[in-house]
């Protein structure tokens, strides 16, 4: 069965520091990959997606993610974190073969300190 | 930018009561979903809906749950007889088609007393 692993439950970084959130997936074939962000009390906002092509994808708010097939990973990065980036981040996958539901990781909570 | 809207933002209901959660998907989207997130846990799939019928549902989506698209704009989730463990954040999502990303609403927080 497909699954998504986000090994870090909670990460704290200083404002201005770089960030990398890890995501690994287990899937029969290369799925479509997504990162969503959830601010407190808010819904899920799509940060970026990977379907095919260039393995480094750019998203909103200065985020990027790199797909590495050999490692079954899709890690999210940002070179300089802002205090407003504090939120919960979810990696998700979906089968490229049809209309199937998203499978989410458990999320990584990001705290930003001054 | 068009959004998925959900109402109410917070619903408090007595155990055993029926509750209806409402969603207005993005207007040109064809696929609709409900997910839920129990506090502190991951987002879980409930049901998907396409062409006026359920296309897939999870084990969570038992006989107490139903979905409906009563008109051209609303997409509702009904829980017939709520239980304490139904307390969660419920998210509606929609997408334009296969191979398109799902767009989520802000969710309805359901609290069962």
Q: Which features would summarize this protein structure in a list?
A:
heterodimer, A: 114 residues, mainly beta, 6-stranded mixed sheet, 4-stranded antiparallel sheet, 51% strand, globular, B: 113 residues, 7-stranded mixed sheet
Sheet having the most strands of chain A:
6 strands, mixed
- Give the strand content of chain B: over 45%
Shape type of chain B:
globular
Question: Would you tell me the structural class of the helices and strands of chain B?
Answer: mainly beta
Give the fraction of residues assigned to helices of chain B: under 10%
Secondary structure: helix percent of chain A: under 10%
SSE run of chain A: EEEEEEEEEEEE
Can you give me a brief rundown of this structure?
The complex is a heterodimer of chains A (114) and B (113). By secondary structure, chain A is mainly beta. Chain A has strands at residues 3-5, 10-14, 19-21, 24-26, 32-38, 44-50, 56-58, 64-68, 73-78, 87-94, 103-104, 108-113.
Account of the protein in words:
- The complex is a heterodimer of chains A (114) and B (113).
- Chain A is mainly beta and 114 residues long.
- Chain A contains no helices and 12 strands.
- Chain A has strands at 3-5, 10-14, 19-21, 24-26, 32-38, 44-50, 56-58, 64-68, 73-78, 87-94, 103-104, 108-113.
- In chain A, the strands form 3 sheets. In chain A, strands 2, 5, 6, 10, 11 and 12 form a 6-stranded mixed β-sheet that branches. Chain A has a 4-stranded antiparallel β-sheet with strand order 3-9-8-7, with no helix packed on it.
- In chain A, a hairpin with an 8-residue loop joins β10 (87-94) and β11 (103-104).
- The termini of chain A are far apart.
- By secondary structure, chain B is mostly beta strands.
- Chain B is 0% helix and 50% strand.
- Chain B has strands spanning 5-7, 10-13, 19-24, 31-37, 44-50, 53-57, 65-68, 75-79, 88-95, 103-104, 108-112.
- In chain B, the strands form 2 sheets. In chain B, strands 2, 4, 5, 6, 9, 10 and 11 form a 7-stranded mixed β-sheet that branches.
- Chain B is globular, with a radius of gyration of 13 Å.
- The termini of chain B are far apart.
- In chain B, 35% of the residues are buried.
- At the A-B interface, β5, β6, β10 and β11 of A face β4, β5 and β10 of B.
């Amino acid at each position: 069965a497909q699954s998504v692993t986000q090994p870090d439950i909670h990460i704290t970084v200083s404002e201005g520091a770089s960030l990398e959130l890890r995501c690994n997936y287990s899937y029969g074939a290369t799925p479509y990959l997504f990162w969503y962000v959830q601010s407190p009390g808010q819904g899920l906002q799509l940060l970026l997606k990977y379907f095919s092509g260039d393995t480094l994808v750019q998203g909103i708010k200065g985020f990027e993610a790199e797909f590495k097939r050999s490692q079954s990973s899709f890690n999210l990065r940002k070179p300089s974190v802002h205090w407003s980036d504090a939120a919960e981040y979810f990696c998700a996958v979906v089968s490229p073969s049809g209309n199937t539901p998203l499978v989410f990781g458990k999320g990584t909570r990001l705290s930003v300190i001054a | 930018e068009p959004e998925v809207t959900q109402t109410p933002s917070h619903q408090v209901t007595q155990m055993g009561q029926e509750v209806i959660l409402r969603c207005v998907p993005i207007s040109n989207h064809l696929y609709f979903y409900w997910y839920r997130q129990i506090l502190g846990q991951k987002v879980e799939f409930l049901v998907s809906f396409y062409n006026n019928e359920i296309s897939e549902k999870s084990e969570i989506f038992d006989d107490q749950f139903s979905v409906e698209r009563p008109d051209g704009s609303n997409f509702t989730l009904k829980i017939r007889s709520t239980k304490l463990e139904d307390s969660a954040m419920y998210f509606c999502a929609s997408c334009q088609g296969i191979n398109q990303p799902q767009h989520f609403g802000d969710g309805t927080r359901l609290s069962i007393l």
